Amino acid sequence: MKLLYAQEEIARHVKELGAQISRDYQDQELILLVVLKGSMLFAADLCREITAPVTLEFIRVSSYGSGTTSSGEIDFKVPLQCDIAGKHVLIVEDIIDTGLTLKVLHAYLRNQQPQSLKCCTLIDKKKYRQVDFEADYVGITMEDGFIIGYGLDYNERFRNLAGIYLLDPTNLPFQGEA
Ligand code: PRP
Ligand code: MN
Ligand code: MG
């Protein structure tokens, strides 16, 4: 596997996103809605770069299972546990790929009538977009490639890598190797 974005580079993007979000929300109370599992590390770092008064909420949705392509079916594994009606909500995602997860999630949340609903993604991957969904805040834009690390998994592994790496689809790792 090949290093694409080193820890320091990711940190620079996270800082910049945090500054933009802080400027936009200023003193407004904001719910950071962390989409588990992938955005766990990003959200942990991002929330510390935001000066607006934030609360953290979690939801878990999944569509990739053990493969490298989206199943197209979004499974709500842990539903939203709080009332977002009338609140400012910012969805925190690690990556937008086909856009299906965010499209479904956005519609589900919109339906609960938050005062505002925006989305922040660390990575916007363009090539396989199936629905036109654009995030309000984007850290890194890339064209193609299955990536792992910094929360992103292949078959549940490699989320704990500090950097983001490109996985060779013709040579997928098994068990311990990558
Ligand atoms: C990944 C990623 C995003 C979503 C993006 O989650 O974390 O949530 O897929 O893909 P899409 O735009 O094609 O829908 P995954 O389903 O792998 O679950 P995980 O976060 O638990 O790894
Ligand atoms: Mn995810
Ligand atoms: Mg995944």
UniProtKB/TrEMBL annotation:
<comment type="similarity">
    <text>Belongs to the purine/pyrimidine phosphoribosyltransferase family.</text>
</comment>
<dbReference type="InterPro" id="IPR050408">
    <property type="entry name" value="HGPRT"/>
</dbReference>
<dbReference type="InterPro" id="IPR005904">
    <property type="entry name" value="Hxn_phspho_trans"/>
</dbReference>
<dbReference type="GO" id="GO:0000287">
    <property type="term" value="F:magnesium ion binding"/>
</dbReference>
<dbReference type="GO" id="GO:0004422">
    <property type="term" value="F:hypoxanthine phosphoribosyltransferase activity"/>
</dbReference>
<dbReference type="GO" id="GO:0046100">
    <property type="term" value="P:hypoxanthine metabolic process"/>
</dbReference>
<dbReference type="GO" id="GO:0032264">
    <property type="term" value="P:IMP salvage"/>
</dbReference>
<keyword id="KW-0328">Glycosyltransferase</keyword>
<keyword id="KW-0547">Nucleotide-binding</keyword>
<dbReference type="GO" id="GO:0005829">
    <property type="term" value="C:cytosol"/>
</dbReference>
<dbReference type="Pfam" id="PF00156">
    <property type="entry name" value="Pribosyltran"/>
</dbReference>
<dbReference type="GO" id="GO:0006178">
    <property type="term" value="P:guanine salvage"/>
</dbReference>
<dbReference type="InterPro" id="IPR000836">
    <property type="entry name" value="PRTase_dom"/>
</dbReference>
<dbReference type="GO" id="GO:0052657">
    <property type="term" value="F:guanine phosphoribosyltransferase activity"/>
</dbReference>
<keyword id="KW-0460">Magnesium</keyword>
<keyword id="KW-0808">Transferase</keyword>
<dbReference type="GO" id="GO:0000166">
    <property type="term" value="F:nucleotide binding"/>
</dbReference>
<keyword id="KW-0660">Purine salvage</keyword>
<protein>
    <recommendedName>
        <fullName>Hypoxanthine phosphoribosyltransferase</fullName>
        <ecNumber>2.4.2.8</ecNumber>
    </recommendedName>
</protein>
<keyword id="KW-0479">Metal-binding</keyword>
<feature type="domain" description="Phosphoribosyltransferase">
    <location>
        <begin position="4"/>
        <end position="154"/>
    </location>
</feature>
<dbReference type="GO" id="GO:0006166">
    <property type="term" value="P:purine ribonucleoside salvage"/>
</dbReference>
<keyword id="KW-0963">Cytoplasm</keyword>
<dbReference type="InterPro" id="IPR029057">
    <property type="entry name" value="PRTase-like"/>
</dbReference>
<comment type="pathway">
    <text>Purine metabolism; IMP biosynthesis via salvage pathway; IMP from hypoxanthine: step 1/1.</text>
</comment>
<dbReference type="GO" id="GO:0032263">
    <property type="term" value="P:GMP salvage"/>
</dbReference>
